[in-house]
Specification:
Length: 184
């Protein structure tokens, strides 16, 4: 029993559909496997200590450049102006790939502090290496954590130092001790 021409065309349509799907999937796989992907970190480390020397010269005041553990790195270092207050900013990435920002405001005012810590509240103090730091946890913890999930603030004679971020409390204390040794 032979197939009628209509039956033969119907089978060819299904067979051609399956073949075209196989060819399409093969092309997609070849393109996917053939496109190179860079798995390296796209955020370059910066030499914040060298940049702090230039910032200090520009400001006429010392921009902090604390020593951090060798497995931490800085991803940003710059002078900023917010609400008329000039500040020195350094962004650190810890060993656990968590963020700690350091902001040192020169001739600060309460508005600048409020702007930076708007989602935090003061919750006591801690003494680290002879300096008293105010503790500022977040009002509303979030997942993923925000950039000011936890903060420590210390007031100097003519500046305010705030460290904030998502890292563990121990990392904050380590950075605060390093800053304290640089200040003292």
């Amino acid at each position: 029993m032979s197939l009628t021409p209509a039956q033969r065309r119907a089978k060819q349509t299904i067979r051609n559909l399956v073949l075209s799907l196989i060819v399409t999937m093969g092309l997609v796989a070849a393109i996917y496997l053939g496109v190179p992907r860079d798995d390296s970190n796209r955020i370059a480390a910066v030499d914040y200590q060298t940049i702090s020397i230039d910032a200090s010269a520009s400001l006429g005041q010392q921009a902090l450049s604390p020593e951090v553990p060798s497995d931490w790195w800085a991803n940003a270092a710059r002078l900023e102006t917010t609400l008329g207050v000039v500040s020195w900013y350094v962004g650190f990435v810890t060993e656990e790939n968590q963020y700690i920002g350091l902001s040192q405001a020169f001739d600060s005012n309460p508005s600048w502090e409020s702007s930076l810590l708007s989602s935090n509240f003061q919750d006591g103090q801690i003494e680290l290496s002879g300096l008293t730091w105010e503790i500022w946890p977040t009002i509303n913890p979030s997942s993923p954590p925000g950039t000011t999930e936890y903060a420590l603030l210390h007031r100097l004679e003519n500046s305010v130092v705030v460290i904030y971020g998502t890292a563990a409390t121990a990392d904050f204390e380590e950075l605060a001790k390093s800053i304290s040794s640089e200040i003292n």
